[in-house]
Amino acid sequence: MRIGDVRQAIHLTEPLFRDSDAAVFDISAVRQSESPGTFSPSPNGFYGEEICLLSRYAGISDNLKIFGLFDVNPDYDIRLQTASLAAQMLWFFLEGFSQKQYETPVLDTGNSGRFIKYHVRVTDLDDDMIFVKSNLTDRWWIELPAGEDRNFYVACSHEDYLKANRNEVPDRWVKAVERLKT
Asked: Structural domain tally of the chain?
């Protein structure tokens, strides 16, 4: 996602992190005024609050196996501002990790009432799109058949559900179907 798109709706990055195995942050993606301690600082980039929120989203991911924070260079970090931001990012990651729900629709056995399924008819598709919403966290997934009575769940946003209700196919659905084909 482009930084402008992230700034407009940062919450839309959460589903990307939720389906990721790795989250790698380069501190030079943060603007120099907030993170000068890097080899190649930039006057533009994320604000400290934004990068910390992204770190939190990485922490709450059920799938994440690797978290990396790179290019913090003490030689350029005169007042330890970058080290402080890196520590805050780690704190937000751990705070998210501590609130992890290990919530995926595939783990829902029976009719526990934890999830609600919504069927949406989109004109250009043969079958309904199935969206799954958690009653616990309000997170959303798209359910796709993966063969042999199994389903594949793709993290999505409420906006993807609303888009389908406007008879539009969400980009996440298209990308997920392409991945399943390969």
From this structure: 2
